[in-house]
Amino acid sequence: MQTVRAPATSANLGSGFDVFGVALDRPADVVRVEKADRTTIEMTGVGSQYIPEDPEKNVVGAVAEALDAPAHIQIDKGVRPSSGLGSSAASSAAAAVALNALYDRGRSRRELVSVAAEGEAVVSGEAHADNVAPALLGGFTVARDGAVTTVDASIPLVACLPEIAVSTRDARAVVPESASMADVVHTVGAAATLSVGMCRDDPELVGTGMDERVVTPARADLITGYDAVRAAALDAGATGVTVSGAGPAVIAACREADQRHVAAAMVDAFAGVDVDSRAYQTRVSEGATLY
Ligand SMILES: Nc1ncnc2c1ncn2[C@@H]1O[C@H](COP(=O)(O)OP(=O)(O)O)[C@@H](O)[C@H]1O
Ligand SMILES: N[C@@H](CCOP(=O)(O)O)C(=O)O
């Protein structure tokens, strides 16, 4: 038997649509695997009642197939599905590490990124690596053209998850097909600023670099209360606020000293529009851990 904990992740960070991702220190999924003749899946934990146990429909089924590693797979969900916090990626990454160890496949963490991305294709139709890369490798990750660059950053973050469901598939449908040159230039500047901020562990630069004008406004419209939550977080000291992944979670960068205030302000602002939410006071952290 092998057991792996894989963390929630936040993709995009505004300016890095489909490219940037960070591992969060909480919440996380825990996956246990045992060798079997065919793959079976058992789900427990947050939102597990909504996730299919059929290996054809659960992301870990595709991961087991990609590694030719049939197993009984128990998934204890800590990351709520359809959260914008890389729920499916946490399971995919944990299963990839666990099955690689169980069957002694000898794949490196970097090699497992494309394996875990096969799981993402099951739910979003495309094999995105922007969540599975940080879930496997930890830190801040830049995933493009099949290559991944990582930075071991440690930035305080608040991830506020409202009781609203937004599926990644639906949120991709609202992404505009084109952008003006002015918006492209703005996004490049923001992405570069954010990357420098990660290299320097500077929450001010990271927050400033979250600003993005093309994808984020379209997705913010799917999140009840987004503008009020963003304004409240900035008022409480957040250095930047954006949609986490495809939403509905909203992520704020901040200094350590402001983290509690930012978390409270975001929950209160969602409550102001009659939406219950939960704030995770978290930070950029490690990737999947094999026990
Ligand atoms: N092991 C799994 N964990 C989470 N979601 C899964 C899993 N397997 C399949 N899914 C499906 O994936 C979808 C959630 O994925 P996604 O929208 O990408 O979530 P998130 O935004 O948190 O990353 C749901 O439809 C869920 O049923
Ligand atoms: N780049 C993807 C990331 C989706 O992240 P998730 O946590 O919502 O699954 C996108 O923006 O569609």
UniProtKB/TrEMBL annotation:
It catalyses: L-homoserine + ATP = O-phospho-L-homoserine + ADP + H(+). It holds the Pfam family GHMP_kinases_N. ATP binds at R80, P81, S82, S83, G84, L85, G86, S87, S88, A89, A90. One of its GO terms (biological process) is threonine biosynthetic process. HAMAP family: Homoser_kinase. It is found in: Cytoplasm. NCBIfam families: PRK01212.1-4, thrB. This is Homoserine kinase. Residues 60-139 form the GHMP kinase N-terminal domain. It comes from Halobellus clavatus.
